[in-house]
Amino acid sequence: MASPEDITKLEAAAQCVMAPPDRVTAEERKNAENFFISLRNMKLPLNVCQEVLENTQNHFVMFQIVQVLLENVLRYWTNFQPQEIQAINKYLLEFPIKRLSEPLPNFVVSEFLKSAARITKRAAVSSEIEDSFESEDRTNSNMSYLFELLENLLSSNDDQLQALGLQIIEELATEFATSWRSSKISITWDFHIRAKREFEHTMLKKLLELALTSLSRILSITGSLSPSQIKICDKFLQVTTVVLSWNFAQRFLMIRLRLLAYATSSVALRPPSSWRDIFQNGEIISFFMQLHNKIRHIENLCANSMSSLIQLASCMGEVLESPHPTIPTIITEDDLSNDSQPPPPRPPKPHDIYIHRFMQCTIETFSAGILENEMLPVSNMVYKLFTYHPVMIFFRSPQPLISTFLNFVADTIIRLTGPAMQFAITKDEHTYHESLHNLLNCWAILIRSRDIAPKELQELINFQNEQIIVAFFKAVLSPPYGIRETILGNEINEDEDDEGDRKVFSDLLNPIGFFGQNSLITYSSNLIKVFNERLYQFLNFTATITEIELRTWQEDLHWILLLTSFLILESDSDYAIHLPDEVVQFCLEKYKSNEFQPQNFEDYILSCIRNPNPANLILPNADPITLIAGHIVTWNSLEHSALENTSVLQYLSPELLRSSLWSLSRLIAALTPNEARRHLSFFDEDDRTEDPMIELMPKIPVEGPFAQTFVEFILHRAFRVLQKLPGEKELCSEAVMCIVGLMERRSELVACSEVLFEYLAQIQLSALPARRNLIRALVLIGSSISKQDIQQKMYSTILQPLSDRFLSLPVDTKGSNIDSDIVDLLECFCGVTDAAQCHSAGVLFDFLNPIFTACVPLMQKKYESQLVVNSVLELFKSLTSNLMGFVDMGDQFNAFYTTLLSLLETYKKTQTAKYHTMLTPADEEEQTSDLVKIMEILSHCVSKCFLPLSDKADEMAQSAATVALLGLEMLLPIFSADFLKIPTLCDTFFSLLLIISELAPVCFARIQEQMIVDFLTSIRLALDGEFGMNHAVAGLQIINNMGTHFCTANDATPLVIQQLTALIEKVFDSCLQYSCEVDVFPDATNALYSLICLNKDGFLAYINGLLAHEENVRQREKLEIAFSKLLPDFELPMSRTGKRVFRERFEKFLNDVAGLLYLGQ
């Protein structure tokens, strides 16, 4: 019994916890918090908890006591009778109702309802009532009482009662939709699935029916809704949102626990077959559409209503299957005789009826117009209709219905395109961007599937596709061809971090380009017409042109280039390396029908380069790709000439120059012949069926005079940008990427070009943006060509000057300029290592040897420069991850190994001291980037890819282990729990430990005793979930690797065995905690098995301690039997088979002890 003194003591502790900092000391607050924590560990009688709740007015005390009550109920569950459980649950649910006269705070009410939901679920999954799951009457007393209570609350006219009813539903839904993340009471994943299914059958459908009944009364009201009716409608719409958003459990036999998570992941509405009466006639669609039409002008009701419609659009599965599957009719020869009657038409399938009704209701509701706040939900609804259901269902619908629906979708896209692009371009507001993206993706589905549609629909789709293209063109072009408004210079956002239009609108430009590939004539004719006119305007510019006219012209040409580029390649990905098949097929058909006539493509392009004139671009009967290529090359030639003329250069903008170079790069990729792309790893030699007529298609060959001229034109084009506009970093990066793309496809021509060497002699490579990529491409070319003189020329032109300059730098001189030069040159050397291949590794190592050897004294002298330190470490990171993986020579490896040891020692002496004094490491992610690189270097040293297969592989592995040991001794004293709160550091640290534990676990037997204690403390924190799920998994894998090694190697020290044995409790807890995680459970059981093999007596001692718990005494006999099955008397083999067998036994063990075993605090 709770005395008044006890309640006073509780209230005093609560006041101390909640008091402002100036009222209590930190120690007083901590003591009060510990007092409440200790209450949860006490066996506090339930009647005492109820007395406290009834007699206290302190809300925090109520909050804490409810948690204590729940803890005791769950801990001593087997000691209660079902009637007592129901009484407790009823008390928790009714307590907030009785206090409505003096409403409780929401956090207290939420805790009462959350506890009731937890107990309701625990009762549903209790092994004591397990047999009831298979009974015909699937309604247990808890569920019946709950539904009766909810019906009364939601039907009440009291707003508070309605809100409370809705809150109960939300807490129940949350509880039954998730699994418990606590393993103390040994509830396993399969029981959660059963509880979820029980909730679906006994409660969820009734809640939906209750909501539909109440909403139907709202729908029958004529005129406007009163405020009270709006509130009632809102509450029941929220109920339907909860029900329709439910992730229904799948029906299958639970053979393996590790399969369950995959089977239950779903974002669609997939109710069970018992819900067919609600969904199969499609009336639910009509109901919600009519309801939405009534309330759409009330914003919050509209949002909830649209949420329900979106989920209904995703409805699929057995609920839409026919309850009586039709048997296919076998047609015989007699049936085909003249006298036979045609078979009667089959009745439409329930799935078809549902989708057809959805289309009809959508047209009726939204064809007159879509409100602004409806646009995104409607687009999501239509998107789910097309993506969650087979497209043939749409094509099987009556012709007038599908035609009207497709027109509705297309007209919505056309009406939306203008405002969406205007807001995005002129105001940087992407209000309608996502809506347009959803609808364009829907239309793309129709385009891809149009060949299986009836002919009339194909014609309709083609017609509307052309209208959509025209609408998009109008949205991005200025008058007279479009409606785009021009942004003045002072309105342009010049933030360098902003992404360009190419990336911002790629999700729209990709489908528009795809539409153009399927309506090539409409797309290309509109594009070429505007492109040609803008080229004429450029040639006729005068000094009197206004800023707004110039800006309008620049924006037009910029968008023309983007539209062109997204047409000639399948996407904005670098892996789209040829003309789209739709374009090639269309052009070949026109060539065969003589509508297109062969052109001399090489002469045409050469004239565009040498005499760029828009008057010469339009060729009669030429295919669109030829004309587009001519316009792109002509513009790039004009732009190249403008770079030489200061008076004309003012008409160009960096953004326009970037778009020009990018379009040129994509043109090269699109028109490269197939045979020139065979070297690309992602190219499939059989991915295109060659047609003899393919030779008529425009292409840029990889050899010959024309190819050489074209390569030199691009080199001139890109390098002049680097020379003239070196301050435009993004533009220069685009120019470098253009050169790199050219090198990847025509390396021999580029390497033999005198133009390349002329420009390389004129520019400073280390000063270029994207220099690392450029150096990598140059080195790859030099190593791939067979001509020795060219290789030597590239070496002396590119590599040797970089080396000479670096080794001659006055590193003793202080100053930012020197540091900047060092950093730039080191980045160039990183590009050299990135280009390492098996046949070139030895030569590149000899070149880089003096470089990385000089980096050790460089770090000693420049230890105060974080930039220099990071650059040196980045070079060594690149060396270990790329170049050294190909080195198979003992002398070279030993030389690098010696240098690396010296570097680590230097870093330890000059850099680690600062981390011992860092007070707020969580705010120092940038300052700890060097630590990340050190750990990545160590990871590469130990990883398999760093250890070459050679006669000295064992010696190299031992050397790598020594490097790893030195790294651990340097890092472990630094890393505390605070350091591990830095995400990047934490990720890299556990990745390093995992690699070492797998490949060089001997290191852990050699490090100092205190370090092994600190190391395993970090592992314990990871298992506690301090650093996230991924690191908990890494911790389990590390324990498994260490336990496996020390079991087989027998080199474990007593301290190591003692520390690993201390982790048995955590690992066993993880096996129960993550039994529902298909990616974690195998690692947890493997770690536990390795610890058992390492110290079986330690595990048995832990088990005996568990069984001695007061909470486990009553079920001790059953638990002992379960543990005996888990751990047989025979010897445990340390092997993969042994671990697999143990995991299977543990799965059975989980079922045997479900709800019986209590692990304690």
From TrEMBL:
Q: Please give the organism.
A: Acrobeloides nanus
Q: Does the keyword Nucleus apply?
A: yes
Task: Work out whether the entry's keyword set contains Cytoplasm.
Answer: yes
Q: What is its main location?
A: cytoplasm
Signal sequence segment: none
Family, as annotated: Belongs to the exportin family.
Designated name of the protein: Exportin-4
Q: Where in the cell is it found?
A: Cytoplasm; Nucleus
Keyword terms: Cytoplasm, Nucleus, Protein transport, Transport
Q: Which GO terms describe its biological process?
A: protein export from nucleus
Q: What GO cellular-component annotations does this UniProt entry give?
A: cytoplasm; nuclear pore
Listed GO molecular functions? nuclear export signal receptor activity
